[in-house]
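We store amino acids, tokens; thus:
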Amino acid sequence: MTKSNILRELKDYALISVGVILYAVGVTVFMLPYSLTTGGVAGAASIVYYATGIEVQVTYVIVNIILLIIAIKELGIRFCIKTIYAVFFMTFVLWLFQRIIEVPDPNNLGAKMLPQLIGEESFMACVLGAILAGTGVALCFENNGSTGGTDIIAAIVNKHRNMSLGSVIMACDVVIISSCYFIFHDWFRVIYGFVMLFICSATIDYWMRRRQQSVQFMIFSRNADAIADAIVQTHHGVTILDGEGWYTHTDRKVIVSVIRRRDQAMMQRMVKRIDPYAFVSMTDASGVWGEGFDQFKVKDTNPGAGRFSLHKPPQTKLATLVCVTNNTTKIDTAQQVLGDYYDIRSLLQVGCDTRKEFYSVILGQEPRKRVSFIKKFFGFDAFYLSKDGTVTLVQGNYDQAEYDITEHPNLEALKEYLEKQKKTK
């Protein structure tokens, strides 16, 4: 393991520890003294505490040990390493904080109790406890950890059943919170439990979404090439647009780059260093999909095939396959043979203009490098049809280091190959 990997792991464990501490503060300071219940194993442990007096850390660690043993068998040890650390550290911190804040119980000589540090403000305790718990869980999630409990149950169920993690966790939390009615016979405590669950979930979403937020920079500079080169060296994408300053009627280059919010300061320092007179505009990018960012999570539907298409039957959406040429005869031939399976497109139709210097290099390369070029820079599966009729096909995920390249004697053989692939999927 390299030094950078070790430092990254240490950072993960340090931040998971902070997250666990925040969660434990929310439970011991704001939840237990006010007899509040939330979801997860901590919520179930609190119900046991209210009913029997068994401290929450005892039930918490017992339940999680059982779940971890099952998880190791079902999901493997790699999934559980940081969760094991978080569970045992949480057990210790829950015990420690109760010892720190407990005071003598005036109604029971020799006994201890957890004081209500903010008076009788139960609702405020509910809000503060949920915010701290949600922030703690988000910190654990962001650093590849987990507080165990219902997360483990959800992962196991998700492995064997087609149920999302969120729906399983929500079902467990609803059962746990609702069960506190049988202890207190008070629906207001159940309602408070669901309020805590909602605030905790909203807090987790806020921190997770904030971490993934992106910003778009538009940079107007006379030194655009140097700035663009510097951005590329930081492994971010960049596009240069042609513009014109309307007051002076002089040409301007406009640099557009979308980056994660956490890299915002780095970008500002870099631009200032290269061109302190650059004009820079930064805006929030509420949704960013594509290479290096989020993946599209919408179903691909056919335009015109909705509920108003009364007279035209819906058609199957064809996948795109690029024929690495602009020769219309080759395109037409390929479309005739493969048209049942693919929408065959030329280089120009996917934006590869070989009249431009960067794209023209594709014309002098061997077939394998030609199709790999299209896959790497445009993302499409592609094939090259040589003069003797042989076909070179590239397939694979966009972000793979190496692609699956196959050779076929002719288009008919390629068609048979694609048919077999579809049958096996």
Q: What stands out?
A: The first helix runs from residue 3 to 31. Residues 302-315 have pLDDT under 50 and may be disordered.
